[in-house]
Amino acid sequence: MYSKKNLYIYFVVLSIIFLFSGCEDSQPLEPEDHFEAVGLRLYSSGILEAEIFKGETSDTLHVSAGSTGDGMEITFLDENKNEIGTPTEDGTYFDWEMGDTTIAVVWQHPGEEGGYEFHLTGKTPGTTTLQIFVMHHDHVDIKSGYIPVKVN
Amino acid sequence: MLPIFFSFTSLFAQSQNTCGINGVVLNGETNVPVPEVELSIPDLNFFTTSDSSGSFHFHNVTEGEHEVKISHVAFYKNSVKIKLSPESRKDFVFYIIPKSIEIAPVVVTDVHTHSLFEQHAEIKNVLKGKELEREMGITLANTLKNETGIAVRSMGPAPARPVLRGLGGDRVMISEDNSKTADLSASSPDHAVTVEPFSIEKIEVLRGPKILTQTSTTIGGIVNVVRHDIPILKAEGISGYAGVYGETANKGTLGSFSLEAPVYGINLKGDFTRRNTSDMATPVGTLKNSYSANTSGALGASYVWNDGYLGASYREYDLGYGIPGGFVGAHPNGVDIKLERKQVSVKGKLNYGSTGKEYFDFSMARVYYYHEELEKNLSIGSQFRILNYLGYLNYYHKSYFGWDKGISGISGEMRDFEIGGRVFTPPTKSLRLASYFYEHLSSDNYNLEFSARYEFNKITPRYEDPQSKIGNIRERMFNTYSVSVSGIYELSSVVSIGANLSRSSRVPTIEELFSGGPHLAAYSFEVGNPELNAESGYGAEIFVFHRYDKLYYNISAFANTLDNYIIPRNTGELNYQIFLPIYAYSDVEAAFYGVEYQVEWEFLPGFRLANTGAYTYGEFKESGAPLPQIPPYKGKIELSYTAANLSLFVNTEYAAAQKRVDLFEVNTSGYAVLNVSTQYSLNALGVIHNFSLNMDNVLNKEYRNHLSWVKSIMPEAGRNFRFTYKMYFNIGE
Question: What pLDDT digit, counting tens, does each position of B392-448 carry?
């Protein structure tokens, strides 16, 4: 038979178990700092080739079929169109999406993949689009929007 | 001692020293005779079984005192002491209390409960037994989707949550055994409810004054699932169930079992369920990345004595599921989510006084919830960790200042909310303290309920930032109160009318206050508002219910207005970093009006026609424009036939088009979907076998749920075969 005293002891034990029950509490990642940009400019040998801001551009990138153009360097823009350089956080890198890779492709110097400089190589005459990403561990952190590419 | 009742009428004696005993066993909730009940008089070694009319007979029972033991696998066991003498003439009527395991379908017109409120609620808002098995879906919300006034918000099959009268999120509390399930399902449409429906005994949709003992939001409601992880009654013998479930639309399979047994005076109980589903097939294609896999289980123990019980339990729920892709700004291949919830609970009840009507009831729980959202390459996009401590202490009292019975209580909740990854809501602690009371009064032909609740809430972000992009992130404190009164009046023995008036309140959540970044799985860039005030509003409802022998109907109309109604609204703007639509939390004045009805008519013996429907109209009070995420008029019409243990059902679920939509919200077309099902029960050797076979969307019709976030890319499931088998057993003592 269980006396009231036993019940109180039982309750206290249960309460202790409850209060100190050790579900493993895996520590979450700390909130990450984030590179914030809403546009970018593409420079080739210091000359502005194209600018895209909040997904809108009036510029077109040109390259000849069968040739590789000069290198282009990316610099990103903040809300006020100030140039803010390129991301330096761990795990970030440059990536892209070419709408039609039979018309043009992106090429980077071996060993410089993921850096923020690239060349366009024209394949066949036509028009397509290039979208530039800042990736963070294979997830898109920043998208540029679509920049027209014309192969002559 | 269970509330088992017996009454005395006439008796016949067969001899001076022995007599025969006649009697009938009735279901204490429905007054329906119960066949195949085992009755015994151990001291005489007499055994018998009730026949199809619930009647039983013992021959040659000697005079004097005897104990009659009564048992049935679907009812709680008990025993009755009887005293026989030549002078007394008795037929016995034994009432026994069901365990919510049904053999025959519930006959709504035969429900009999202890108060008009309970009767109304039992008919309208409880899903249990065979009806629960027939409606069983892969989530709690899908299981409830055909209940009157309930719609389902979803983002794929797994993350589905019930919406009551157009109100969702935090305004609908989900609880297990009256303890809140502390998860993130209320905060976002991509977050799943951490409740496995297959192992539930019963689901209650609670409204009215009594819910203020658990929540301050009277206008929403509570969906409470009853499991009794901590046994509250003495186990006699080993009992439990085993079951399987399968469906074809998503190649879903499930296995589940539960066991309860007394061990050295302690009641032990455990259950385990494992479920897997693949991508869902629709009439126009497969909804990619809509799979799910979950495992859940619990262990509980209690000691039950005459004056109460005390027990503890541990429950764990693990779920992995996919969020489909293909939206603007979404991953082409979607997102995967993994979550787990671990809960330790302690509960008890202690009688006070000698009547059994006064007692203390308490509960404490520690809940650990962890959730991560994964890109397809398994890198973590978002992480959430919540540690919750919850508890309440209630005092149930008898007659008090003119009230027949009531509850007074206090409750508290401490929450530690931490976020990692690419989520911008600051880690935050919150504290909630509440005090409340509820009173009930019954008279000859009216019932009255009244309740009130006061809450103090403090929400403290880890860091304050007066200059943040969303505003001044700082500690916030709220003092709120809620009140509710309901009355039911019996115009006659078959017609009752009622009304409810309430003042509701709700404190903003951490996400509504402090969000500031991309939520990829929800396809939105969320912007919180640290200046939000608590929601407050008023609700009114009138209803009439009518219960003839063969006809039941219930009609209700409601009107709810909310000041500071907090909603995320699509601003029409894009976040130009990730091209996600920006949803900003703001408060508006909102109004909800609606009508609900249920009709059930047994037009021939065994044949029933039932029809339910619900309509909600929601608008911004200032402009009259439609509120977002309001379900259209929807209902169900069903023809059923029941003969002995076999039932057949044909029904059509239907919904009107929803063209009253918010800015940037998409219209939905109306639909009508045909479903058929059958159920069969077999009681063999004391084991009950329940079989349910359903064919949903027989005609493979393409239709869309207005509250589905994936409706723009895929409709609801196509033709689907569902099979449920559950076996209930009770062995020995």
Answer: 999 999 887 788 889 999 999 999 998 876 666 788 999 999 999 999 998 878 889
The B172-176 sheet, strands edge to edge: B126-128, B202-206, B221-226, B172-176, B179-180
Quick one: tokens of B67?
């104990």
Domain assignment present for B707: yes
Task: State how far the Cα of B156 lies from the Cα of B170, in Å rounded to an integer.
Answer: 20
Residue A104 — φ and ψ, nearest 5°?
Answer: -155, 160
pLDDT 10s digits, B16-43: 577 788 888 888 766 678 888 889 988 8
Do B369 and B300 lie in one domain? The reply is: yes
Number of domains in chain B: 2
User: Chain B neighbours among A 43-62 (CB < 8 Å)?
Assistant: 54-55
Residues B558, B649 within the same domain: yes
Q: What's the complex ipTM?
A: 0.79
Shared domain check, B367 and B243: yes
Query: Which CATH number goes with the domain that contains B73?
Result: 2.60.40.10
Q: A18, B366: Cβ pair inside 8 Å?
A: yes
Contact yes or no for B380 and A14 at CB 8 A: no
State which H helix or E strand residue B266 sits in. strand B266-277
Architecture of domain A40-151: Sandwich (2.60)
Q: What are the sequence ranges of the domains in chain A?
A: 40-151
Percentage with pLDDT > 70 across chain B: 89
Same-domain check for residues B171 and B31: no
- Give B-chain residues touching A52 at CB under 8 angstroms: none
Phi, psi of B256 (to 5 degrees): -155, 150
Phi, psi of B581 (to 5 degrees): -65, 140
Residues of B in contact with A54 (CB under 8 A): 576
Give the distance, in angstroms, between the CA of residue B61 and the centroid of all CA atoms in the same chain: 46
Report, in angstroms and rounded to the nearest whole number, the Rg of chain A calculated over CA atoms.
Answer: 27
In a domain, B106, yes or no: no
Give B155→chain A minimum CA distance, Å. Answer: 21
SS3 for B381-440 is EEEEEEEEEEEEEEEEECCECCECEEEEEEEEEEEEEEEEECCCCCCEEEEEEEEEEEEE
Measured in whole angstroms, the distance separating CA B520 from the mean position of its chain's CA atoms is 30
How many residues are recorded in chain B?
Answer: 733
Backbone angles phi, psi at B135, to 5 degrees: -90, 0
- Is residue B103 situated within a structural domain? no
Read off the CATH number of the domain in which B425 is found: 2.40.170.20
Instruction: Check whether residue B633 and residue B562 sit in a common domain.
Output: yes
Q: Which of B364, B227, B380, B384 is nearest to B296 (CA)?
A: B227
Residue B484: which H helix or E strand, with range? Answer: strand B476-490
CA dihedral (B110, B114, B118, B123) in degrees, to 10, reads: -10
- Of B183-187, B325-329, B359-363, the least confident: B325-329
Which residue of B lies nearest to A10 if distances are taken between CA atoms? B310
CA distance B512 to B514: 6
The reply to whether B534 and B490 lie within a common domain is yes
On the CB side of B691, CA atoms within 13 Å amount to 10
For CA atoms B97, B100, B101, B106, give the dihedral sign: positive
- Give the number of other CB atoms < 10 A from CB of residue B120: 23
Query: Are residues B180 and B91 part of one domain?
Result: no
Give the integer Cα–Cα distance in Å for B460 and B458: 6
Range of the domain at B89: 6-96
Interatomic CA distance for residues A79 and A36, integer angstroms: 9
| Set of chain B residues whose Cβ sits within 8 Å of the Cβ of A139 | 375, 377, 379, 381, 422, 520
Instruction: Name which of A10-14, A96-100, B511-515, B526-530 the model is least confident about.
Output: A10-14
| Last residue of one domain, picked from the residues B96, B131, B150 | B96
Residue B84 domain flag: yes
User: Do the Cβ atoms of B502 and B484 come closer than 8 Å?
Assistant: yes
Tokens at residue B456, please? 């103090």
